[in-house]
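Task 17 of the worksheet. Students: predict the tertiary structure of the chain below and write it out as structure tokens. Keep your answer in the requested format; marks are given for formatting as well as content.
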Amino acid sequence: MSSFYTIFAIIMEIDILQVLTQCPLFKGVSENEVIEMMHTVSYRIKQFKKGDIFATVGTPCTHSNVVISGEMAAIVTGPSGRVVRISTYEKGTFLSPSLLFADNNTYLITIEVTEDTRVLRLD
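Model answer:
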């Protein structure tokens, strides 16, 4: 790894780099290539606390998001009012990638933060 990439990886945080290299979005891409790509895009780390709502039904999906740490759950409320967890999003999950390219790019579920969570958001 060149000194530029080493410095950038330190700035980016090594744990974030490791998660990204395991994410399906970057599958088969080397750490150096991930660092190079991340150097050319705008991103930020968003933090959410347990109990926060990441998205609700009807919220537009306008960014690519990767869970860096923590956990979130996709939940739906049935006609009886019962809340059902349909999926869990953990470290390395690329959230709703298909919504970015859909004609109707709104969330069809609510995503609740079930543990303190960090998300890398690509702008």
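Marker's comment: The chain has a mean pLDDT of 86. Residues 3-12 form the longest helix (10 residues).
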